[in-house]
Specification:
The structure holds two protein chains of two kinds.
Chain A lengths: L2 H19 L1 H22 L17 H31 L1 H6 L5 H30 L7 H26 L6 H14 L7 H7 L1 H9 L1 H13 L5 H22 L5 H5 L2
Chain B lengths: L3 E10 L2 E11 L4 E5 L6 H8 L7 E6 L2 E2 L4 H5 L2 E4 L11 H11 L4 H14 L15 H12 L6 E5 L7 H18 L2 E6 L10 E6 L2 E7 H4 L5 H13 L1
Parallel strand pairs in B: 3-8, 3-9, 6-7, 7-8
Antiparallel strand pairs in B: 1-2, 1-4, 4-5, 9-10
Helix pairs in contact in B: 3-4, 3-5, 5-6
Chain lengths: 264, 240
């Protein structure tokens, strides 16, 4: 096995072991979308009518509509959690240990990113399982089709988190950033309402939602759950991933100076 | 060939000059104590030596490998113990070592064999299955040293490794690291502000305000007044 793959498997195993030992983190990650599904969506079912829009071929309940958005919410919160743990690791020093390994820094950061995404995919599937038990039935093959969509969307959100981690000086600042990032990103997207619904209330809001990369992640997942590929969403997600990964790698580059200011 | 060769190293944080043309070398088997008061530039020097920062002026080479030109080859020769603990407390001693071994390209079998070796070397073999969280401060530090030795480095860098430890643990750790230099020929750079950790045969570098004020054998540096008094006088003079 090459040193690259050894490092990758070690980082994945470490993240998996941490995940197993931190069961509270797993449960907490599930509670949030479940509250949205079981309380919020159930309450709004009667109030919000949804017309037939792609990828749906029939009328759907509001609970069915928001499932992809809630899956993306799990990825989003996990990405921010991973970013938080990166800032913590940098302050506590274990990030230094990783970065002094004799491998390219981009590879080490990518391994860290991928490990976080794989953990969040496990949580997304656990949520889909509970939603199934609650009565939300998706096409069986959709559960398989959604896997690459979850990976790509997770990588995009993870790259945004990595970039944030490279720019935040101290752990204490992270809570503020979380509020400024997570809530606007989530609410100004197609996670809770389709674009046409947004357009009814505000054209500007609709445009913001349409530009939000998180909306594209949600739509990529939504289409994949119905075994369809939304190429526009995939393109935006891939582009956002590439841009934020490049920015994050720049931020962690020892020669660029950002690390220099952060790690003092 | 020097295990560590530093030439003309300078570094700034904005306008503040943290290191000013620092030059020194550490030979294989040499225990070199980097003495300096808080704020002398020791941690900056360590960040440069481990490539967490990149110096714009000066050159660092490890076993003849230039850290700037061939960072992976240079880092592969280096074991590092940072001032802050960097263990994964939720993992066992053996898992902490295996994780680090894999980061350095060791196979699972090699890693297990070396873990056994380094734990025996540091009298910790019986603790392999314990969680790092359950170890006391001294044993956690020893585990970090064991981990830094997993890939058989030729240079060991330790940044104030005894901070926060009791006297017994400090004596034990300094004795272990001196033995590594003496018996295994590993070059050691040990940063500290505690003069009593320096043995008479050690090489001493005194760093203050980013400059090397003096370098030499501890016994030759201050034969009469003792190293502590000499260090105090030197750094006070420089401050004045």
């Amino acid at each position: 096995m090459s040193p690259y793959l050894r490092a990758l498997s070690a980082i994945l195993l470490r993240e998996a072991l941490r995940f197993v030992t931190q069961r509270e983190r797993f449960l907490a990650a599930l509670v949030r979308p479940l509250v949205w599904l079981l309380v919020f969506a159930a309450g709004f079912r009667a109030a919000l009518g949804l017309s037939i829009t792609a990828p749906y071929q029939t009328y759907i309940t509001y609970e069915v509509y928001i499932v992809p958005g809630l899956v993306a919410m799990i990825l989003l919160f996990n990405a921010m959690q991973s970013a938080l743990s990166l800032v913590y690791d940098r302050e506590m020093g274990s990030m230094r240990l990783l970065l002094t390994a004799p491998l390219p820094r981009w590879w080490l950061l990518f391994c860290k990113l991928l490990a976080g995404v794989l953990v969040s995919i496990l949580q997304a599937y656990a949520f889909l399982g509970i939603a199934y038990l609650y009565g939300i039935r998706l096409p069986p093959m959709g559960y398989l089709w959604v896997l690459p969509a979850l990976l790509v969307a997770g990588l995009m959100l993870g790259a945004v988190g990595l970039f944030l981690a490279s720019t935040i000086r101290q752990l204490e600042n992270f809570a503020g950033v979380m509020n400024f990032v997570i809530f606007p990103v989530f609410f100004l997207s197609t996670a809770l309402y389709p674009l046409w619904r947004m357009a009814e209330s505000s054209r500007l809001l609709r445009d913001i939602c349409a530009w939000n990369p998180f909306s594209h992640a949600v739509e990529l997942i939504r289409f994949a759950l119905y075994m369809r590929l939304n190429t526009e969403a995939l393109g935006w997600v891939a582009l956002t991933f590439a841009v934020f990964l490049a920015l994050a790698l720049w931020g962690f580059d020892p020669a660029r100076g950002i690390m220099t200011r952060k790690t003092r | 060939m020097a295990a560590l060769d530093v030439a003309g190293l300078s570094f700034r944080y904005g306008r503040k000059e943290a290191l000013k043309g620092v030059s020194f070398a550490v030979q294989p088997g040499e225990f070199c104590a980097l003495l300096g008061p808080n704020g002398a530039g020791k941690s900056t020097l360590f960040a440069l030596l481990t490539r967490l920062f990149v110096a714009k002026q000066g050159r660092i080479s490890v076993m003849g490998k230039d850290l700037q030109q061939a960072p992976r080859a240079a880092l592969a020769q280096m074991g590092v113990v940072f001032q802050q603990m960097t263990l994964d407390l939720d993992l066992s001693v053996a898992r902490n070592l295996a994780y680090f071994g894999a980061l350095h390209g060791l196979s699972r079998r090699e890693s297990a064999a070396r873990a056994q070796d380094v734990l025996e070397r540091l009298d910790m073999a019986e603790r392999a299955r314990e969680k790092a969280r359950d170890l006391n401060g001294g044993h956690r530090r020893r585990l970090e040293i064991a981990r830094a030795l997993m890939h058989r480095p030729r240079l060991l860098l330790l940044d104030e490794p005894t901070v926060g430890l009791d006297a017994r643990a400090r004596v034990s750790i300094t004795a272990h690291v001196h033995a590594l230099a003496r018996e295994d020929g590993i070059a050691v750079l040990w940063a500290t502000h505690l003069v009593d950790e320096v043995a008479a045969d050690d090489t001493v570098l005194i760093l203050h305000h980013g400059e090397i004020l003096e370098t030499g054998r501890a016994r030759d540096m201050a034969p009469q007044n003792g190293l502590a008094a000499h260090f105090m006088a030197l750094t006070e003079d420089a401050a004045a």
